[in-house]
Amino acid sequence: MSTAEPMPGQTLRPGTAAAVAEPTNVLLPGHDVPLGRYTTVRRLLPQRQLRTVGAWCFVDHFGPDNVANRPGMGIGPHPHTGLQTVTWLVHGEIRHLDSLGSDQLIRPGQLNVMTSGHGIAHSEYSPPDHPPTLHGLQLWVALPDAARSDPPGFAHHPDLPVLAEPNHSVTVLVGEFGGVRSPAVVHSPLLGAQLWLPDGGEARLPLEAGFEHGVLVMSGAAEVADVVLSPGSLLYLGIGRRELTVRAAGPTRLMLLGGEPFDESLVMWWNFVGRSHEEITEARADWMAGGARFGRVRGDDADPLPAPEMPTTRLKSRDRHGRTVG
């Protein structure tokens, strides 16, 4: 997925949410961002008060949208560096194409993970004969320095582990939860898990105390850690929690994100995650030149999306608290 905002991470500055090193409850409203020609998303991360949750550095929630008589998602060829994209659907279908030759249709309950490494290009479309509703998440994971120059890759996981309890279920997208582990390969200690309460009720979730966590509601509403949460906001929970209580009056779907605090400083600009202004400038030039670094998205004849113009000021590397580094 491509962000329409040239500098999604550069607006962040030091704030209480990112700086707290103990359990906390900070409710962070998202904002709407147009994506492609037909889709608007609620951007929940990054924010001014919070750059990352673990290595999760970008969270877009889209839908539920009625796309019965509309094209649905349509995002043409665009590049990525220094990250993994994680795509999760509740309703609808999306076709993923990339410069490795991957051509994969993702459906609800399945997971796509694309690793950009040094550089990859991809596109995402709703197929012509698509379901009437589109609803899901697109997330980015910042790659640590040791992995961010690796070759690109793509993996599709049609089956994920599900923990079934009497009144709720937990699907483990990334990492380990409740003694089961997702098959998805990531490069830092990380958790992504969907909680589904079909009839409401209460769920008590065990947490890794060394992780920081955040929660978002995809549908319904819930009281999470004594905070009322509905779609459109991210609840940051800090670090040090060993358990999380969720209560819902009716059908509710939530996403729990967590991970060890990501201590590497980042420069985020357009679709690139790097470490310096020079890296971003080079990536933009390579994309606009159409060279071998990103390649062409196979099976997609659409024109590649042009990169925005570079800002007139120098891009700054920032730590997870939003502080300028170097």
Automatic annotation (TrEMBL):
Source superkingdom: Bacteria
GO molecular function: metal ion binding
The keyword Metal-binding is assigned to this record: yes
Cofactor note as given: Binds 1 Fe cation per subunit.
Keyword Signal set for record: no
Limits of the Pirin N-terminal domain: 40-141
Region (Disordered): 298-326
Domain Pirin C-terminal residue range list: 196-290
Keyword tags: Iron, Metal-binding
PANTHER family, sorted: PIRIN, PIRIN-RELATED
Pfam family, one: Pirin_C
Listed InterPro entries: Pirin (IPR012093), Pirin_C_dom (IPR008778), Pirin_N_dom (IPR003829), RmlC-like_jellyroll (IPR014710), RmlC_Cupin_sf (IPR011051)
Binding site for Fe cation: H78, H80, H122, E124
Descriptive protein name: Redox-sensitive bicupin YhaK (Pirin superfamily)
Lineage: Bacteria, Bacillati, Actinomycetota, Actinomycetes, Micromonosporales
